[in-house]
Specification:
Elements lengths: L14 E9 L4 H15 L8 H36 L8 H9 L4 H8 L5 H26 L3 H11 L5 H13 L3 E8 L2 E8 L5 H19 L3 H7 L10 H12 L8 E5 L3 E8 L7
Antiparallel strand pairs: 1-2, 2-3, 3-5, 4-5
Length: about 290
């Protein structure tokens, strides 16, 4: 963790504390670091009585960011392979530079044009879930080893060399080469705690629309007293699950008597950033 300058979005109030965490894998160590950072940043505010609620939002944001990065890296892999196989204009030396210009251009039409050439988009979502499951196996085994689980310690080397883990290691290697990671940042001023979760991959415009649609649908169901019905209807995440986590976060914010529309923002361009702005004074005291 290192100190970073505060973003301009924090407003006029001076920053009293700033902390930053680079997230490459959502390991037990990262979870502990996030919880410790939140404990420090929420101290002295009404939110220190609600650490679990704030952590649950951060947990959703971090998992969403990692999932989005994996999806982006898989799309990069598929597009790269297609270009090398079908076009004489591309080779190992220039294909990644061209892909960078397209995917980090901020121009959705350029990105969508490449996505349209992926025949099995649903397969990408399946692959993302498989990567997350594989990574979770390693993290769980590693966590057990750290806590003294001798049986798991003996099994970890065997787990790591399994052939089915190669896709995960390939994706991790691509992430290192392209520097595609997740960033967790806290800025505390006298009046608010600003939590920023950003990832180094762009979010697809279609995914942003889906998130907004699900958030609007959740708010409508909540206003009608049908909140539980919404989550029952949303149990099927075979389409990728984009947006459901935001409904969960909005529900938590409502329970804290905070307005999700003025508390949780998505900023998408060549990179993706989500801002969570929490008042340090209880909302009812204003």
């Amino acid at each position: 963790m290192t100190d970073k300058p505060a973003p301009s979005g924090l407003g006029q109030a001076a920053v009293e504390m700033a902390e930053y965490l680079l997230v490459k894998s959502y390991s037990h160590r990262i979870v502990e670091n996030v919880q410790q950072m939140l404990q420090r940043s929420l101290a002295g505010s009404w939110l220190e009585n609600h650490p679990d609620a704030v952590f649950q939002i951060c947990d959703e944001l971090l998992k969403n960011a990692i999932k989005s990065n994996y999806k982006f890296l898989l799309i990069w892999q598929l597009t790269r392979q297609r270009l090398l196989e079908t076009s004489d204009a591309f080779n190992e030396d220039n294909v990644d530079e061209w892909l960078s210009e397209v995917f980090f251009s901020g121009e959705n039409l350029l990105i969508e044009k490449q996505l349209d050439k992926i025949h099995d988009k649903s397969g990408v979502n399946v692959d993302v879930r498989q990567l997350l499951d594989l990574e979770n196996q390693i993290i769980q085994r590693d966590g057990s080893i750290q806590s003294g689980g001798s049986d798991d310690a003996a099994a970890l080397p065997e787990l790591i060399v399994r052939d089915e883990l190669l896709p995960l290691f390939n994706i991790k290697g691509l992430a290192r080469r392209l520097q595609i990671y997740v960033h967790f940042k806290l800025d505390v001023s006298s009046d608010q705690v600003l939590i920023t979760v950003s990832n180094d991959s762009p979010i697809l415009e279609s995914d942003v629309k889906r998130i907004h649609e699900i958030r609007r649908k959740f708010r409508r169901y909540r206003e009608e007293g049908r909140q539980e019905e919404f989550f029952i209807e949303s149990l099927d995440t075979s389409g990728g699950g984009h947006g459901l986590g935001y409904a969960i976060m909005d529900s938590i914010l409502f329970d804290l008597n905070l307005n999700p529309e003025t508390s949780l923002f998505i900023i998408s361009a060549s990179r993706t950033m989500v801002l969570l702005a929490l008042p340090r004074s209880h909302p009812s005291s204003g």
